Input
Amino acid sequence: MILFRSSKRSHDSDSSYRGQSKKAIAEEDDRRAFLHYSQQSGLPPLTKWPNDVTTFVVPAQRANGIEYHHSSCDILYRGITKSLPMNGDVVLFTGPNFEGKLVSRMRDVSQHPCNGRHMSNDEYFRNRSRQYQWTVQGRFKRRIRFDEIVTGQDFGRPFRNMPSSKLVKKGLDLLKHKLPETFECDLFSDQPKFEHPLLAGCQSFRIDRPEHIGDNTQIHGIREDGTVTEDTSLLKDSTVPRDGVDRRKYFAKNCNLERFFFETEFVYTFDFYSNFFSPARHRLEFTPFFSVDLIPYFNGYPLFMSMAREKSSGEYLWATEMWHKGLLNYDISPGRMCRFLTGASSSQPEDSGSPDSAGLNLAR
Output
């Protein structure tokens, strides 16, 4: 009996060791893949990341065939060669399915020098709770039905430190009345995603004839306060609401989305902003006293800043990513809030004194 128990313990120990080895090898493979992707995105290594910069926005490398044209894309800005402006400057882009122009804004981050042709970020964000904003204006290269174009987030590998499925489902149930019926969410698969139709998510939407659009240095249809004026009159359907809030509710239903197409002869404008997610701190900030750091969860995957994708083909119409400095240490031990939500324990102190500890100090 003693020899059997000893032999069994030895066998269990060997099995455990092999399992741990496989896990370590898999994590090392993930780390190499992550570093390769970040290098493709033009990011500097952590040791050379500018001290006063937390976040860059770059073209998404997972969206093939889309080219962006702006002076800042061709020069070295703060140690990164592919950085896109976040100050409202117009960036021209073209891809297989869409061509147009993009503007992006982000609160509380270092900016490219402004060209002076539009309002500054300080003016845009003043007296608003918005954390970031983007607008796309352009033309579709082929006819596509409204329900086919979605926006949201998708990830190429599983989340880390996930809360229990019961906790997540309970949270989604609480939010269900605020989400469109077309909202799709899969957080526990090997490739998590959450997405919804673009027209059920963008705050402002307008359609124009090409001859009414000005030059490429500005976005047509923007008011003095920097917001896009809603205009759906070219749909020629009186049932479509004329204001953004009701239009989003209307196009939250598949039966309404399926009635319309994006046509190649018109120019479409989509304006989106977010109030709760802060890219500068990579946190969900619900109140001044309660926020959740997202860096420990997304396994190093950058979030989309702006994105539109065709569901059936999986092809992106446009896609830009926001990279926070803390993502480069995505596999560090999570902090107290993350451990509380997941029920995980940590072998390290919550704050080791490093400025990159779980990304918590980077945004301070």
Notes: The helical segments are 2-40, 121-125, 165-175, 244-250, 254-257, 336-342.
